[in-house]
């Protein structure tokens, strides 16, 4: 059992922290900007509640965060009441936010200067993966920090991999999102085409999902897409945030992302349709409007 803090109890962080407590058996202290959410978590899982990120981090071996973006991450780490102000020597800070590689490298440098470790560790698997404790975690950072943190991270993951030095976890997550964007658009176009051709979509997917066209998106999203139901899963707003990170990084490293840039604009159209919180599979709705 380790002493652990978790900062940020959103749709992902809430169940992830719960797995650390119930499955991992760790002593967990939580912080959330909305205190009522943290009180709800403590009532459900036990553990302790802290009033600031700094208080949450104090004395703990591992400190996790899962917040919104780069600015939120800086606020909870190096802000006035940030966790970095009271990290224990030799502790490890694990950030599960999908953020930029730039901020990961920045915070890793500050952590090293403070005598503790930092891992950028974004996740894939969505809300269902977090609830079921089967997330994929892509990690950047030092090997010794990773070795210490991996058994703790495994409480909410089925795959945890060290991808390279600081920032490598975020870069790997960017590749994940780039691939998903193309897959979902292709699936949306395929279903749209099939409907216009008068085919039975369920029969079509049952066959092609067993061949080269098969994917997680096809297996897990085709039924709801075919039914026009998008009120669940990974929101369009979040995907646009992630694709923005990808496109910014591509500007820096010279990569060409024509499909990702195009699909990002398609998601902008979905937002204009009122689909900001729709699941990312709502690309089909844009074709059928």
Question: What key attributes describe this structure?
Answer:
N-(1-d-carboxylethyl)-l-norvaline Dehydrogenase, domain 2; three-stranded mixed sheet; 2 domains; Rossmann fold; 289 residues; 13 helices; alpha/beta
Describe it for me?
This protein is of the alpha/beta class and 289 residues long. The protein folds into 2 domains: 3-164, Rossmann fold (3-Layer(aba) Sandwich); 171-288, N-(1-d-carboxylethyl)-l-norvaline Dehydrogenase, domain 2 (Orthogonal Bundle). Helix content is 54%, strand content 14%. It is built from 13 helices and 9 strands. A 6-stranded parallel sheet has the order 3-2-1-4-5-6. Helix 8 packs across helix 11 (236-253) and helix 11 runs antiparallel to helix 12 (258-272). The longest helix has 29 residues, at 168-196. It starts with a strand and ends with a helix. The relative contact order is 0.10.
CATH homologous superfamily identity of the largest domain: NAD(P)-binding Rossmann-like Domain
Average residue pLDDT: 97
Number of helices: 13
Elements, N to C (H/E): EHEHEHEHEHEEHEHEHHHHHH
Question: Gap between N and C termini, in Å?
Answer: 53 Å
Strands side by side in the biggest sheet: 3-2-1-4-5-6
Helix content: 40-55%
CATH architecture of the largest domain: 3-Layer(aba) Sandwich
Task: Write down how many β-strands occur, each being a DSSP E stretch of 2 or more residues.
Answer: 9
Provide a short characterization of the protein structure.
The chain is an alpha/beta fold. Helices cover 54% and strands 14% of the residues.
């Amino acid at each position: 059992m380790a002493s652990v803090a978790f900062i940020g109890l959103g749709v992902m962080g809430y169940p992830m922290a719960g797995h650390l407590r119930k499955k991992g058996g760790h002593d967990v202290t939580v912080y959330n900007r909305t205190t009522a959410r943290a009180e709800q978590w403590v009532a459900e899982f036990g553990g302790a509640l802290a009033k600031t990120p700094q208080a949450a981090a104090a004395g703990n071996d591992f400190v996790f965060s899962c917040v919104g973006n780069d600015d939120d991450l800086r606020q909870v780490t190096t802000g006035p009441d940030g966790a970095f102000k009271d990290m224990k020597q030799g502790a490890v800070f694990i950030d599960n936010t999908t953020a930029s590689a730039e901020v990961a490298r920045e915070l890793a440098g500050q952590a090293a200067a403070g005598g503790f470790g930092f891992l950028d560790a974004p996740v894939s698997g969505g809300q269902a993966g977090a609830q079921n404790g089967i997330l994929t975690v892509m990690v950047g950072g030092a090997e010794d920090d990773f070795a210490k943190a991996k058994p703790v991270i495994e409480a909410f993951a089925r795959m945890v991999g060290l991808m390279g030095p600081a920032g490598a976890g975020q870069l790997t997550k960017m590749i994940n999102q780039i691939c998903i964007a193309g897959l979902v658009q292709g699936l949306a176009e395929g279903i749209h085409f099939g409907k216009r051709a008068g085919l039975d979509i369920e029969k079509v997917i049952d066959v092609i999902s067993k061949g080269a066209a098969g994917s997680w998106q096809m297996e897990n999203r085709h039924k709801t897409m075919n039914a026009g139901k998008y009120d669940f899963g990974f929101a369009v707003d979040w995907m646009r945030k992630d694709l923005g990170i990808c496109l910014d990084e591509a500007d820096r490293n010279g990569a060409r992302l024509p499909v990702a840039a195009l699909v990002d604009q398609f998601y902008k159209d979905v937002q204009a349709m009122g689909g900001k919180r729709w699941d990312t599979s709502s690309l089909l709705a844009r074709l059928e409007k």
